[in-house]
Amino acid sequence: MKSAFRLRPLTRETTVTLLLVLGLALAFAYAVNLSYWHAAETRTAFAYQSAVISAQRDSELLEVEQFDRRASAQQLRPYETLLGADLRRIDGLAGSPVARAPRFAFPAARRDYETLTAELERLQELGQARFDATVADNLSSRNLSNALFAFVALLFVVIVGRLRRTVERGRSLVERLQRAFIARRRDIAGVEVGSVLLSSTRGASVGGDTHDAFTLDGRFAMFLVADVSGKGIDAAVDTALIKYSIRTLFVDDQDPGSIISRFARMYVASAEHAESFIALFLAILDLQDGTVRYASAGHEPAWAIFGQDVVSLATTGPIVSAALAPEFETRVLHLHPGDTLVIATDGLTESRDARGKMLGTAGVAVWLSELRGTPQADAEAIVRRIRRRSRRIKDDLAILIVRYAPRPLGGVSPQRTPLEVVAGR
Q1: Burial 108-118 (b: 16+ CB within 10 A, else e)
Q2: Which helix (H) or strand (E) holds 278?
Q3: Reading across the β-sheet that carries 397-404, which strands appear in turn?
Q4: N or C: at which end does the chain have fewer Cβ atoms within 10 angstroms?
Q5: How far apart, in whole angstroms, are the C-alpha atoms of residue 300 and residue 75?
Q6: How far apart are CA 339 and CA 333, in angstroms?
Q7: For the chain, how big is the Rg over CA atoms in Å?
Q8: Please, which residues have CB within 8 angstroms of residue 109's CB and are 6 or more apart in sequence?
Q9: Residue pLDDT, tens place only, 297-353
Q10: 210 CB burial (10 A radius; 0-12, 13-18, 19+)
């Protein structure tokens, strides 16, 4: 039996229609292909530029640690690991031999750092030119495809709109993480608190610095400032880990050295990147008598303001890294009503003027001796001074100012004594 189904010959109109549909499909595929590959090149160029900027920051940090602070070889090793990872990333993303990372060996002399700085500045210019070129090519290809295939413009608008919404959702997610995990601060009876949290990345509110002020029982309050390696989602995840891990440990342990030691062991077990690190300062204040117990992990010096005297509080241990879990000691000081703690990340002391001179610990102490406002007003005044001195904040910055202001109980405040050292458990 023969089948009743027969293929009808294509008419000219049908053939033209199919050719138009095929041409439309090819045109759309070509336009999407142009957009995709140029966008990929732009992302690669941006990643290269980011790697160069990271290398500039980490080389400067390593130079400061090696020569200004005269850190030991063991203390320098995490910073060397970071810089080495940056240089390898530059090599992996370089688009040509002239864009490869400069050779740099550890340990290095001052002249080696000067050479590295000059080379990284050259690479930054190359990276900017590469990024600008890819953006221009991307825009040119988009204009061409829009001009040739105007009838699919609506589809392109829909796609661009969806991509924009995706980017905005991602940015909104990170900002919500930032607000939820980093910047939220509740009032604590017995203290006045001021804070500032700034990202050095233009157009972004998410940086690697964080602070926290928290009390559970109204008797003891913890104050935390930390500097996390990385930015974006990775930094937000790490800051969430810090904030809630430290809070959890604080619930049953009021010894900062012990808390940081236990947290360091947790971080070694959970860190996803070998080069990641955290520098942090933790103070626990007895709100009844003004006793402060504090410990720090490779953090910038904090300051205690006793009346007219500004005292620098030195670090009590190295940074917390994915490969190192040391024990940290606790130190003790006593605050009278009106005495103040000032804690900040290295974006403060390492801010530079037009000649490249860092503000330094001594410079911060001078500023603090001149400020006489509320903690929040003083924190904002510090930022204004940095902007006047440096024109632009080039590093993330977290500042937490805590002034002891207990309610009068008719008791006698403890006598001010020299700083005590208590070994962390």
Answers
A1: beeebbeebbe
A2: strand 277-286
A3: 191-198, 397-404, 340-344, 302-306, 309-313
A4: N
A5: 14
A6: 11
A7: 28
A8: none
A9: 988 789 999 988 999 998 898 988 877 778 899 999 999 999 999 999 888 988 888
A10: buried
Phi/psi of residue 362, each to 5°?
-65, -40
Q: Pick from 400, 395, 287, 265: which is nearest to 341 by CA?
A: 400
- State the Cα–Cα distance between residues 228 and 235, nearest whole angstrom: 6
In order of their start, the domains of the chain are 12-148 (no CATH), 186-422 (3.60.40.10)
d(CA 69, CA 57): 17
CA atoms within 13 A on the CB side of 336: 11
Q: Is the pLDDT of residue 411 over 50?
A: no
Residue among 134, 161, 44 nearest 94 (CA): 44
Residue 258, C-beta contacts closer than 8 angstroms, at least 6 positions apart: 328, 330, 424, 425
**Is the pLDDT confidence value at 189 over 80?**
yes
- Residue count (the chain): 425
Tokens (6 digits) for 257: 């050295």
Burial of 319 from C-beta contacts in 10 A (0-12 / 13-18 / 19+):
buried
Rounded Cα distance, 119 and 131, in Å: 18
Cis before 256 (ω within 30): no
Please list, in sequence order, all residues whose beta carbon lies within 8 angstroms of the beta carbon of residue 73, skipping any fewer than 6 positions away: 107
Show the CA angle centred on residue 239, arms to residues 83 and 423, nearest 5°: 85
Q: What angle do CA 178, 86, 355 make, to 5 degrees?
A: 80
Query: Which residues lie below 8 Å from residue 386, measured CB to CB, with a gap of 6+?
Result: 348, 351, 359, 393, 397
Q: What is the pTM of this model?
A: 0.56
CA distance 27 to 81: 48
Tokens 């229609």 locate to 17
pLDDT band at 258 (very low <50, low <70, confident <90, very high): very high
Give per-residue pLDDT as tens, 14-72: 565 555 555 555 555 655 555 555 567 777 878 888 888 888 888 888 888 888 888 88
- Tokens, residue 421: 């050292």
Give CA–CA dist 333/290, Å, rounded: 8
